[in-house]
Amino acid sequence: MGKFQKQKSNRPSHTPYNKPSKTSDHGVQNKSIPKIARPQQQNQIPAVPFDNPNRILLVGEGDFSFAHSLYTSHHCQNVIATCFDSAKILAEKYPQSTGYIQELEDAACEDETINIKILYGVDATKLGKGGLGSGGKEVKKGEFDRIVFNFPHVGGLTKDVNRQVRYNQELLVSFFKAAVPLLAPEGSIVVTIFEGEPYSLWNIRDLARHVGLKVGRSFKFQAEAYPGYKHARTLGNIEGGGGWKGEDREARTYIFERKDGEGKQEQPKPQKNKRSGSSDSDEDD
After folding, report:
1. Dihedral angle at the C-alpha atoms of 256, 30, 285, 154, nearest 10 degrees?
2. What is the largest CA-CA distance in the chain?
3. Cα separation of 178 and 69, whole Å?
C-alpha cells in the first residue's frame, strides 16, 4: 500500500504524507451563500491521498481533468477512469474532455508500463456487479487501493431540497455497497463533497457507517493540488463559461476504511488540530 504523498505548490512530489493543509454546483440551486475556499497560507501542504503504486478506480469523472492530473502531476500510472455518460454525450457536455482522454490513451499506448483505461457508461451504484453499467471485467476483478468519487451528485432531478438530499443519500449508499467488495485488503474509498448546505444534510459519515465503513480521516480538498483540474458540473459546461467555479468553493475529502480494520492504512498519524466546535477526531484542518 502506498503512503499518502504531499505536494508543495504545483510541483509534484513523492515524499510520504506528513501534515495536511489548512486551508451542482452540479445543476442544483442552492440559495445559501457558498463558502469560498480560503487562500492557501505559506508552508501549508495540500493532502494528496494517492501514490504512484496505487491501483485507482475513478468513478463519476466529469471532463477527466482530474484523471489527467493524477497522471501528469502525480505520476499515477495504474488508473481506471470511468464516467456515467456515453462517449458521445460526454463530448457534447464537456468538449474539453476529448483532449484529456486522448493524452491519457496515447500515454498508455506508447508505454506498456502505463496501465490507464477509460471506460464510458459506468454506473457508480453497479460497480463490478456484471451487466450494463458495471464496468466489465476490468472493474469486477477489484483489488483497488483507492476507489474515488469526486463530488457525487444525481444532477437536477428536482429543485426540492429534501428530495435532492434523499436522492443523493441513496446514490452514496448504493455506491458504498458496490465499492467495498472491490477494495484491496488495505484499500480505502475517497469521497469529496462541498461543505455547507445542502451537502451537510447528506450526513455522509452516517451513510458510510451503515454499510460497514468508518472515516479514517478527512481534510480540506484543495484543487490546486491537482494542476489542470477544473470542477465539472453534472449537467455539463455552462454556456459562455459562466462565473461559477466549483474549485473555488470549500470542500472536504473523506477517507473511508472498513470498520473491521482491513481497510486501515499503516502510516503515521499526523497531529490533528480540530476545528472549533467539532467533535470529529478524524478531521484535519
Report:
1. 20
2. 52
3. 26
CA distance 213 to 179: 11
Tally of helices (H runs) and strands (E runs) in the chain = 6, 9
Query: Cα separation of 185 and 157, whole Å?
Result: 36
Q: Name the pTM for this structure.
A: 0.77
Whether the link from the prior residue into 198 is cis, omega within 30° of 0, is yes
DSSP string, 193-258: EESSTTGGGG-HHHHHHTTTEEEEEEEE--GGGSTT-----TT-PPTT--S--GGGB-EEEEEEEE
Q: Residue 138 and residue 131: Cα distance in Å, rounded?
A: 13
Q: What is the pLDDT along the chain (285 residues), one digit of tens a residue?
A: 444 444 444 444 443 334 434 444 444 444 444 444 444 444 567 789 998 889 999 999 999 999 999 999 999 999 999 999 999 999 999 999 999 999 999 999 999 999 999 999 999 999 999 899 999 998 998 999 999 999 999 987 778 899 999 999 999 999 999 999 999 999 999 999 999 999 999 999 999 999 999 999 999 999 999 999 998 876 666 555 555 566 678 999 999 999 875 444 444 343 344 443 344 557 765
